[in-house]
Amino acid sequence: MRRSIREFISSVYTILLVAYAVAGGAALGLYSAYRVVESEFAFGVQQAGPWQVHPQIGTREIDPYTRASLARSADIPLAAGEGLTFRANTDSLDRPLRSDCVYSITGTTPSARFWSLTLQDASGRLPDGWQNERFATTSVRITRPEDGALRIAISPQPQAGNWLRPPDGGGFSIALRLYDTPASGTLTRFTAQMLPEITRLECTE
């Protein structure tokens, strides 16, 4: 009788351990999947100075986690034949972009028929009132000096030449979109020298 009770207790204990392990594994798996989906495209990202690009995001080779992240955010990326999007959340010294600072974007961009540069809030969204503010420019709108260099100022106060005003609220990000570009992300390894430099000049605080 006692042996049967011990065997019963041992069986129940084993079942509880298995159930605990299964529940713990399922919870850990769901949490890790949630964290990956919430992150900003953790797989397949290339880093080129302050800029990040996800070459496979508009192709059939996109990973399932990035696909789930896009479905959650309702973002529609550029297809591989349309172009590439580069994003920067820091300057070239890896300091977070701040709305109360003055920045200079200089250098070159990869070859493209057309490009646009847009300032967004820290979450990558267009800020309120973007239709009436100078949050964006394009390759056909900017003016270039005699040497043909790219120079764009980002400042809370108006600046001479190509000027963009950062959105209010602390941090912000920059999106550089290349349209109809031969610089295919699936074939090109981007470096910092291939993209504009983001230099912080001064801050009000």
- Average pLDDT figure: 76
Quaternary structure state of the chains depicted: single chain
Low-confidence stretches: 31-38
Distance between termini?
79 Å
Helix percent band:
10-25%
The radius of gyration over CA amounts to: 24 Å
Number of helices: 2
> What portion of the residues fall into strands of 2 or more residues?
25-35%
For the largest sheet, list the strands in their spatial order.
1-2-3-9-5-6
**SSE class:** alpha+beta
Counting DSSP E segments of at least 2 residues, the number of strands comes to: 10
- Largest sheet data: 6 strands, antiparallel
The coarse overall form would be elongated
Q: What is the H-and-E element order? A: HEEHEEEEEEEE
Can you describe this structure?
This protein has 205 residues and is of the alpha+beta class. The chain is built from two helices and ten strands, in the order αββαββββββββ. A six-stranded antiparallel β-sheet has the order 1-2-3-9-5-6, with no helix packed on it. A hairpin with a 2-residue loop joins strand 1 and strand 2. Helix 1 packs across helix 2. The protein is elongated.
